[in-house]
Write a structure and sequence with these properties.
The complex is a heterotrimer of chains A (about 375), B (about 200) and C (about 80).
Chain A: E1 5-13, H1 20-29, E2 34-37, E3 47-50, H2 54-62, H3 72-88, E4 96-101, H4 115-120, H5 123-134, E5 141-143, H6 149-162, E6 168-175, H7 179-187, E7 208-209, E8 211-218, E9 226-232, H8 248-261, E10 270-272, H9 279-291, E11 298-300, H10 303-306, H11 313-326, E12 329-330, E13 346-347, E14 352-353, E15 358-365, E16 369-377
Parallel strand pairs in A: 3-7, 4-5, 4-6, 10-11, 10-15, 11-13
Antiparallel strand pairs in A: 1-8, 1-9, 2-3, 6-8, 9-16, 12-14, 15-16
Chain B: E1 6-14, E2 17-20, E3 23-27, H1 33-43, H2 56-69, E4 81-87, H3 92-103, H4 112-115, H5 122-131, E5 137-141, H6 147-159, E6 165-174, E7 177-186, H7 198-202
Parallel strand pairs in B: 4-5, 4-6
Antiparallel strand pairs in B: 1-2, 1-7, 2-3, 6-7
Chain C: H1 2-15, H2 41-55, H3 65-68, H4 72-82
The chains are: A alpha/beta (about 375), B alpha/beta (about 200), C mainly alpha (about 80).
Organism (chain C): Flavobacterium hungaricum
Protein name (chain C): Acyl carrier protein
Pfam family, one (chain C): PP-binding
Chain lengths: ~375, ~200, ~80
């Protein structure tokens, strides 16, 4: 019998707040981190993105360390991890792993052509810097699997604990809005001229965002916030940049995750979907959900609040979804107006109360990758 | 409960040479990676024009995977072969090219074809498309090949029935420095490779 | 116009890495996508960059690409009429 896996600690650093509580308050108020920016060091034209104020990062970091050697992203990751490592009281020994998820890490270091900068653009160097801050005893593990990285990290952590190698895995996920990614998404004609509008008829593309999120995945049920009961990451085997027209990889990922979770699709109370607001991605997701008869399950994309935070998105959106489940509240899918996908889906238009026992988190990305993870609310014993 | 797993086949690509299951199958004089990969493609008579559109990392992973998977993949059945690869430089080889295309503001023309390859997992996508593998896939980064993690992770995929076979390995490339080690792992006992592990084979 | 067509063929073969296609085998009216040269969606985006970089044409709506990039013939005609460099 494989071990049961839980998420016991969560945190996030976003433009909407530097802890989970303030993020939830902002979401309930309907705030968004997406704003217009005119910064020619990032893009020749003005653009919409969800960006964290530098001063806020530096001030918050100064409260936990006087060290100046860390990059902006490293500070954001350390800030996400620090309170949960402190709070968890888990010994950082040989049974405690550190897993970092990112797509581009410290890629901004490439702007500077020194040998030292080039070294810091390596993802393992980023992981080592963050791991050493907390003095993890095990070798850091980095996953870089495009836009599914953040949620894939949860499933990797689960598998690592089930293989009995580790008892606890601290996971951090993060990416920055950089000239590097802005120019690339723009070249892909994938940027929205207005704040992104997932699943809407007049959606035209993504708004990029930046954030870090951190969780503790553990075999210890004591302080469990949620149980991880099934997961799968299946490739479309179709195209390296365009999602499958049939949603095949996502369909199979959800199907496998449900099978492992041993629940029927109809048991799902909520789907925290990817919803990047590109025409093809959102359409593909609607097709995959339709094939699994998930038409009536409430679904949202949190991209309207945070933009697409790339390697952070899957984990950030899981952190928020856990709060959604534990407070029995469905959060609005911000930016949504008129349905713009060909298959019926039940997009959450305003915050509402609903009992959530099981929920599904999905993501899809370049390279044809998809990930689905099924979560179950902890049933607290009656006193 | 925990099944024993075995290395089925392995391949090494470095120093202008390809070694399959310990036997040299392709070797040429000193040249750069672009030329080496093209000559290897021609030598093995691979018919796949998309190969020339790939970045160097994908070409390296693709060549290794092609020689290991072509004999075992079949059109008639589901091929549940998971892909678990890792390296040190992620996609930095392509990242540097994309960065160059945006550093000169007077000549700012980022290429979508270059940008898509600024993700190391694209090589997993290329292999999946080529062999029609609708299967588990993940890309990891380490300072050096963490053989313990990679074989454990492969074993948990096999033992939890998430895959029937795992293509696992190290595909490192930056500029003209490259080294690939790939192996297939499954639950069938293999009498040809008995006492070897990923670690001993990689360090040979 | 003939020189421009030749130039476009050379550009397409080199920029899009069409290793197995000879320039002289591309007819002016061959479809660039689908059964013709077999270009895909990333190639289409790359052609938009070529228009901008080499001919100073910025496509306002990427969907316009569909009619412009039908063949070498249509592409050359569009460039001839709209080029700024």
């Amino acid at each position: 019998m494989l071990r049961e896996i839980y998420i016991t600690e969560t945190n996030c650093i976003t433009p909407l707040g530097f802890d989970v509580e303030s993020n939830i308050e902002s979401i309930l108020r309907g705030d968004t981190g997406i704003q217009i920016h005119n910064d020619i060091s990032l893009m020749p034209n003005s653009f919409y993105a969800s960006i964290i104020n530098d001063e806020k990062i530096n001030n918050a970091f100064a409260e936990i360390s006087a060290e100046t050697k860390y990059s902006r992203l490293e500070k954001m990751m350390i800030l996400a991890l620090e309170p949960i490592i402190k709070n968890a009281g888990v010994e950082l020994n040989s049974k405690t792993a550190f897993l970092l998820s990112t797509t581009k890490g410290n890629v901004t270091a490439l702007k500077d052509q020194s040998e030292e900068s080039f070294k810091s653009a390596h993802l393992d160097a980023l992981a080592k810097n963050v791991a050493d801050f907390f003095q993890f005893q095990t070798q850091p593990i980095t996953v870089s699997n495009a836009c599914v990285s953040g949620i894939l990290a949860v499933s990797i952590a689960k598998r690592m604990i089930q293989s009995e190698l580790y008892d606890n895995v601290f996971v951090v996920a993060g990416d920055e809005v950089s000239e590097f990614v802005l120019s690339g998404f723009n070249a892909f004609q994938a940027m929205s001229d207005l704040p992104c509008k997932p699943y809407s008829k007049n959606r035209t593309g993504v708004s990029l965002g930046e954030a870090t999120a951190a969780v503790l995945v553990s075999a210890n049920p004591a302080a469990a916030k949620i149980k991880v009961i099934g997961d799968s990451s299946i490739n479309d085997a179709n195209h390296i940049s365009g999602p499958s027209r049939t949603g095949e990889g996502l369909f199979l990922s959800i199907q496998n995750a449900l099978k492992e979770a041993q629940i029927e699709a109809q048991k799902l109370d909520y789907i925290s979907a990817h919803g990047t607001a590109t025409p093809f991605n959102d359409e593909m997701e609607a097709i995959a959900f339709g094939r699994l008869n998930l038409q009536s399950v409430p679904v949202n994309s949190l991209k309207g609040f945070y933009g697409h935070t790339l390697g952070a998105s899957g984990l950030l959106e899981t952190v928020i979804a856990i709060e959604s489940a534990n407070s029995n509240t469905l959060f609005e899918s911000k930016g949504f107006d008129e349905i713009g996908v060909s298959e019926t889906i039940n997009v959450i238009e305003k915050n509402e109360n609903k009992n959530i026992e099981y929920f599904l988190k999905t993501a899809s990305g370049f390279g044809g990758c998809n990930t689905a993870v099924v979560f179950e609310k902890i049933k607290h014993k009656l006193h | 409960m925990t099944q024993k797993t075995y290395i089925q086949s392995y391949i090494q690509i470095e120093n202008n040479e390809i070694v399959l299951n310990g036997e040299s199958v392709f070797k040429i004089e000193q040249t750069d990676f672009a030329d080496f990969s093209k000559q290897a493609y021609r030598h093995f008579e691979i018919q796949y024009p998309k190969f020339f559109k790939m970045d160097a990392l994908s070409k390296l992973a693709f060549l290794g995977a092609d020689l290991l998977l072509s004999p075992i993949v079949s059109d008639e059945k589901e091929n549940n072969i998971a892909l678990v690869l890792a390296n040190n430089s992620a996609s930095l080889d392509t990242d540097v090219k994309h960065q160059e295309s945006i550093s000169d503001k007077g000549n700012y023309f980022p290429s979508p074809a270059v940008f898509v390859y600024t993700l190391p997992n694209i090589c997993l996508g290329e292999i999946s498309i080529r062999h029609q593998l609708k299967s588990e896939n993940s890309f990891f980064i380490f300072d050096t090949f963490n053989t313990e993690f990679m074989s454990n992770y492969s074993n948990i995929l096999l033992n939890s029935n998430k895959a029937e076979t795992v293509l696992c390995g190290w595909v490192e490339l930056f500029n003209n420095n490259y080294k690939a080690f790939l192996c297939t792992i499954g639950t069938n006992e293999n009498l040809k490779i008995t006492n070897e592990t990923i670690n001993t084979l990689y360090n040979k | 116009m003939e020189a421009l067509k030749q130039e476009l063929k050379e550009k397409i073969v080199t920029t899009l890495n069409l290793e197995d296609i000879a320039i002289e085998d591309i007819a002016d009216n061959d479809p660039l996508f689908g059964d013709g040269l077999g270009l895909d969606s990333i190639d289409a985006l790359e052609l938009i960059v070529i228009l901008d970089k080499d001919y100073g044409i910025k496509l306002v709506d990427p969907k316009e690409g569909k009619s412009i990039f039908q063949s070498i013939e249509t592409m050359a005609a569009y460039i001839e009429a709209n080029r700024t460099k």
